[in-house]
Amino acid sequence: MELVKKPLFTVEFKEQAVGKVLEGKTISDVSQELGIRYHVLRGWVQASSAPTDFRSSYMELVKKPFTAEFKEQAVGKVLEGKTITEVSQELGIRYHVLRGWVQASSAPTDVALPSTDSTSTSQDEIFRLKVELSRLRRENEIIRKAAAYFARDML
User: Which of 49, 57, 76, 131 is disulfide-compatible with 106, CB 3.0–4.6 A?
Assistant: First the structure.
């Protein structure tokens, strides 16, 4: 059995490839364009965003405290129509953290606070409708992806 040598890539080549991915191209497109394997490029991208020492990687795993205002602003951007991915990248927070905040904000509360002010009632209704719209958009996106998947199988 003969050993196959792996091709050696220069640091500049790796940085160029990772740079294209960070600019917005997909890993698949860049790997095809440059003639390298997908999983190799994916590893470079992951390594480029990984901290170099253990202490900083541990600190990234520690839960960051976020203010209630920050959470409300982030959820508000999602309810305005931006995707969770866009908002999480824009604000520098993890996708699943923001998704949890959005789900928590859209969860119905068990205790309804009585309100005599008509403006707060209408604001509550607007918020409820925005949450419902966000949920329906997510469901619609899932249905659209499923339809595309099944339509591809029928061709």
Answer: 131
